[in-house]
Design goal:
The chain has 160 residues and is α+β, with helices and mostly antiparallel strands. It has one domain. It has four helices and nine strands, in the order H-E-H-H-E-E-E-E-H-E-E-E-E. A nine-stranded antiparallel beta sheet has the order 1-2-3-4-5-9-8-7-6, with helices on one face. Helix 2 runs antiparallel to helix 3. The N and C termini lie far apart (41 Å).
């Protein structure tokens, strides 16, 4: 039982206000070095306020593997879920990406008109999902009942 209790703090998803974001703290504490600045840049952008995070990394060789975190950014009117991944490449650079998932109560057409009117229409992914580009960031809109789920995906090559 003592081993389980000692292990529980690593499993608990935490939420706090701090100088470093929760993913940055987790990465620093667990041996991510080469790409720590990429983790900081992306997580500072995503978790710029009230947030919690659940992260995973390779505990045997953390600095040679990917660091991945799911972040809940909480607002007074709801939450945004973001998944970020940062990985060291063979060339000692860093690859980073994030996908931000946002639910809007308006349908997708109204969501575009209110929030993405400056975005460029790219087309349909297949049948139901619309693809846009907003300043280099891919935006996907999917109907969800009477609302709309928006996924923003950005990839940062050489994010070090």
């Amino acid at each position: 039982m003592k081993k389980l209790i000692a292990f529980l703090p690593f499993l608990i998803v935490s939420g706090a206000f701090a100088e470093d974001t929760i993913p940055t703290k987790q990465a620093k504490t667990n041996g991510i070095k080469t790409c720590i600045s990429a983790v900081e840049k992306v997580s500072n952008f995503i978790a710029d306020g009230d947030h919690g995070a659940s992260s995973v990394w390779n505990s045997k060789v953390p600095d040679e593997s990917a660091f991945s975190s799911v972040i809940e950014r909480t607002y007074s009117d709801g939450a945004i879920l973001t998944s970020m991944t940062v990985a060291r490449t063979k060339s000692e650079h860093c690859y980073a990406e994030y996908e931000k998932v946002i639910y809007f109560t308006d349908n997708c057409m109204a969501t575009v008109q209110k929030n993405y009117k400056d975005a460029e229409y790219k087309g349909e992914v297949n049948k139901n999902i619309t693809s846009l580009n907003q300043g280099g960031v891919d935006v996907f809109l999917m109907p969800a009942g009477t609302g709309c789920v928006v996924v923003r995906k950005e990839i940062l090559m050489d994010a070090k």
